[in-house]
Design brief:
The protein has 289 residues and is α/β, with parallel strands linked by helices. The chain has one domain: Alpha-Beta Barrel (TIM Barrel). The protein is 42% helix and 14% strand. It has an 8-stranded parallel β-sheet with strand order 3-2-1-8-7-6-5-4. Helix 7 links the parallel strand 5 and strand 6. Helix 5 runs parallel beside helix 6 and helix 6 packs across helix 7. It is globular.
């Protein structure tokens, strides 16, 4: 959506229940963690906080990482002992991606550089995007993505970096985006046939695009390398005011043997930073199965 696109360009690259207080600064992280699912926070949705402050607040709650941070800010994550669970900065934009050959030279250059950055920093995941259709049919888009991505996957495999294409919905947030169905993304994974190419399965986007979230995870989890959350409709908190039941979704993810992170990518409905931290804590508890 527009806010995320703007934030990515800029960087270049209620409590669970009334009787659960917000975690104080004195709460040891060990007491806040311990669930099967490891959790992170998407940087752009909590942009009212500096990254330094977000790391401190998120770690206090129990989060172990920050999503969607580029190389220029990794030093801040390392200062706080926070992982970078989905690196960015190599993309041209959300709409100009691997499905169009005219972008392949620039994307190849960007991604080869960032694969090296990610490797040297000790991280693992690097996001990518299909781009918009602009009249292109699905089969041509698949062939173009395969041609382009093969130029970088050998290096990704060598350096242990996983390239992850995010699934978006094209109904509400990203009109005309090509990788807008899990079936299209899975077909791309099959054609590339590399352990270093996966799909970033965004639960919010796929609920809008196709639904059937739990069964899709159960049947196709081998193609999914990372997960994002948000409430439907509205992309706000993952509380009881939206239609997805995240505890069951988290149990389904855990049952697949997934060892990666689930990143909270909801947009807090309140502009008040205290309230934003409360719903971030609530989301942690909801997903801490």
């Amino acid at each position: 959506m527009a806010e995320r696109r703007k934030f990515l360009q800029q960087i270049g690259l209620g409590v669970l229940a009334a009787n659960i207080p917000f975690i104080s600064k004195s709460t040891p992280m060990e007491e806040a963690t311990g669930g099967i699912i490891k959790q992170s926070v998407c940087r752009w949705t909590y942009s009212k906080f500096s990254l330094d402050d977000l790391c401190m607040k998120a770690k206090q709650i129990g989060y172990q990482a920050i999503d969607l941070v580029g190389p220029k800010e990794w030093n801040i994550l390392k200062q706080h002992g926070m992982d970078s669970t989905m690196c960015n900065g190599a993309e041209i934009s959300l709409t100009e991606g691997w499905n169009r050959p005219e972008y392949h030279d620039q994307l190849t250059k960007n991604y080869l550089e960032h694969i090296e950055y990610v490797h040297k920093a000790g991280y693992k995941n690097l996001i990518c995007f299909s781009g918009n259709k602009k009249g292109m049919d699905d089969e041509t888009g698949l062939r173009n993505c395969v041609t382009g991505l093969k130029k970088i996957l050998g290096e990704a495999e060598k350096k242990g970096v996983v390239i992850q294409m995010e699934l978006f919905n094209s109904k509400i947030n990203h009109p005309d985006y090509m990788c807008d169905r899990s079936a299209w993304g899975i077909e791309l994974c099959k054609r590339l046939n590399s352990p270093n190419f996966k799909l970033l399965y965004d639960i919010y986007h796929m609920q809008i695009a196709e639904g059937d979230i739990i069964r899709t995870i159960q049947e196709s989890h081998t193609y999914f390398g990372h997960y994002h959350t948000a409430g439907v409709p509205g992309r706000h908190e993952i509380d009881n005011n939206q239609e997805l039941y995240y505890p069951a979704i988290m149990r389904a993810i855990a049952a697949t043997g997934y060892k990666g992170y689930v990143a909270q990518e909801f947009i807090p409905s309140s502009q008040d930073t205290t309230e934003q931290l409360k719903v971030l804590q609530e989301a942690y508890h909801i997903c801490n199965i």
